[in-house]
Amino acid sequence: MGFSGPGSVVLAPLFLLALLTGLCSGGSDAPRGVAVGFVFDLKAQCDPPCAHGGVCIRNNSCFCSKGYEGESCQYANCSPKCKNGGECLRPGKCRCPPGFGGRFCHKVTCDGGCWNGGECTAVNGEAKCICTSSWTGSTCQHAICPQGCRNGGTCVAPGTCSCPEGWLGGACHTAVCSRSCLNGGKCISPNKCRCRPSFSGPRCEEREKSH
Ligand SMILES: *[C@@H]1O[C@H](CO)[C@@H](O)[C@H](O)[C@H]1NC(C)=O
């Protein structure tokens, strides 16, 4: 077949388009390589112009390059689609919202990670650490002491308080008197005894005189 003459200019792109679209194998009786019924208007005008290498084949009708779609080929096409609200920037390239990553924004990423067995999970479109029962905090960094830590103690591991000086016990609830309280007195805060009736003194060592 001849590509000479005035028709060649039209036929060359037609041939190319036919190959691209696979129109020829679409059940047409025409010989392969010749597009039939495919109107390609060289004078066609597309407004807005076809973007991303798209070709204007009819008035306001674009033939888009691979990976683009939309009336003027303005949208990139990501396959698989961008997940979790990601935006398709260019073919196969997603821009992910905060908290998501991976090629298709399919991976949840928690800022700072999830510690102590916590799991990063999407909750209502937001990446969040789901902590195990003994831990809390945005990255599961805080241990939980169900018994509480009193008297200025801090929970340093599940169920374990670190107590300030002068206090002991699982919840830092036991005061320490470096010298024990005498005569049934009770250590009620660091180095402070509460004495039984008729006793007094720092260690309850003195018997009060009866009147
Ligand atoms: C395409 O648009 C141009 C300009 O508006 C017009 O002159 C032409 O006739 C149109 N072509 C077709 C096939 O409608």
From TrEMBL:
Which SUPFAM superfamilies does the record cross-reference, listed alphabetically? EGF/Laminin
Asked if the record carries the keyword Nucleus, the reply is no
Q: Which cysteines are joined by disulfide bonds?
A: 46-56, 64-73, 110-120, 131-140, 177-187, 195-204
Q: Where is the EGF-like domain?
A: 42-74, 106-141, 173-205
Q: Which Gene3D superfamilies match?
A: Laminin
Q: Which domain of life is it from?
A: Eukaryota
Cited InterPro entries = Dev_Signal_Modulators (IPR050969), EGF (IPR000742), EGF-like_CS (IPR013032), EGF_extracell (IPR013111)
Q: Which PROSITE patterns match?
A: EGF_1 (PS00022), EGF_2 (PS01186), EGF_3 (PS50026)
The secretion signal range is 1-26
An MF annotation (GO) of this entry: signaling receptor binding
Spell out the GO cellular component terms annotated for this protein, sorted alphabetically and separated by semicolons.
cell surface; extracellular region
User: Keywords, A to Z?
Assistant: Disulfide bond, EGF-like domain, Repeat, Signal
What is the name listed in the Swiss-Prot or TrEMBL entry for this protein? von Willebrand factor D and EGF domain-containing protein
Species of provenance? Austrofundulus limnaeus
Q: Which gene encodes it?
A: seraf
